[in-house]
């Protein structure tokens, strides 16, 4: 199961219950966030590579299952949109913090 899919299955109660017992040992909150972000970026990259291969297979006529190829392309697109939104939110938060410190 991908990290992105796991996010939708978490509730606030689950997060609060598991707050003390993290899966990463000796990592602070910022380091855990950075590791999660890095994992999500790597997963997005893998989905993009799969999508490019699916598009190449479609273009050359080597596709075996058109439905699976279309799903691969859609997953990559949604994952990229999510990463762009995370980036935009992070940039907006950074800008807000720099504005408040002046």
Mind explaining what this structure looks like?
The mean pLDDT is 82. Helix 3 (29-60) runs antiparallel to helix 4 (66-100). The termini are far apart. This protein has 102 residues and is an all-alpha fold. The protein has one domain. The protein contains 4 helices and no strands. 77% of the residues lie in helices and 0% in strands.
Brief synopsis:
This protein is mainly alpha-helical.
What topology emerges from the helices and strands here?
Layout: H1 3-8, H2 12-17, H3 29-60, H4 66-100
Helix pairs in contact: 3-4
Key features?
single chain, 102 residues, mainly alpha
Distance between the termini: 44 Å
Q: Structural class given helices, strands, pairing?
A: mainly alpha
Largest sheet: none
Helix fraction by DSSP (H/I, runs of at least 4): over 70%
Low-confidence stretches: none
Q: What percent strand? A: under 5%
